[in-house]
Amino acid sequence: MEKRYSQMEEHELRQEIALLNEKAKKAEQMGMVSEFAVYERKMVMAKAYLLDPNDFNPEETYILDEDDNTFTISYLNGTFAWGYRNDQSELEAVPISLLKEKVK
User: Fold this and answer.
1) Which of 41, 49, 89, 100 has the highest CB neighbour count under 10 A?
2) What global pTM score does this model have?
3) Is pLDDT of 38 > 90?
């Protein structure tokens, strides 16, 4: 039975990320776009469990890693930051691993 990312130790998460990276590269080389996207998303989730949610605070704005949009955190729930992208009115959640750098 597979472990959840939340149950894995740091070294297990790093091994999982390396394995997913290999699978993503193979899928990309074979032109399997949707499979590549799945592995990329799984890597983002695994990386989120390597970070400390306490390093992120509500009302702070970050640049998103995937598209350079900004994201303002309203609250955190586990490894997800809930908030607003580019000051839009729709609340959404992103893994904390996508928060690249704090906007000053």
Assistant:
1) 49
2) 0.88
3) yes
